[in-house]
Predict the 3D structure of the following.
Amino acid sequence: MTELATRPIRIDQSDGVVVDGDLGVPDGADGIVVFAHGSGSSRHSSRNRQVAAALQRRGLATLLMDLLTADEEAVDVRTAELRFDIDLLAGRLAGAAAWVAGEPATRGLRIGYFGASTGAAAALAAAARATRTAGHADDIAAIVSRGGRPDLAGGDALRSVQAPTLLLVGGRDETVIELNQQAHDRMDVERRLVVVPGATHLFEEPGTLDQVADLAGDWFVRHLADPSAPEERRS
């Protein structure tokens, strides 16, 4: 397995805080995927890093970021409140997308979100926010949710999302399957729900996270590649 190649970066947010991230940009990158980790996790999530390495091998840049500062994380450990503040987390993702658009190494790359658990709700809410902002409807070109809680984004956000969305759920994660099916039915955009057989919520079973990486890679390569590029680069 190829090791994930990244460099540390810091992202200034509109609310005045700074969050840490790890950016990796392969030569000739076709797009960039910004990762939104789940509750209680961070940019160091081993599962997200495994998926990010697979995406880099397919020519996609990746940005793994903390959604909370160290001080906020300390508060959240005690209260478990900020991890469910979807509006706050969506704002942090939007700030990351703005940073990507202005960073010389990533400027001009089409952006996708990969969200896990509560991070998926934040990704959908951030994409919906971009849709409602004049001139930003096309900022987010694709979304992938892994074991996500799209219900936490809210019905209005789900109906507002314009980015093609792939919902990946473990076959043994029955409650989350139902929540994702409901979200799928509410959305009015290209979307697909895929149930990975034998997987539980964290996709810990052998081979299941590899399936996630393959499915996510296919989705992002298809939707993030420059539309003017030759077809073979988008398939």
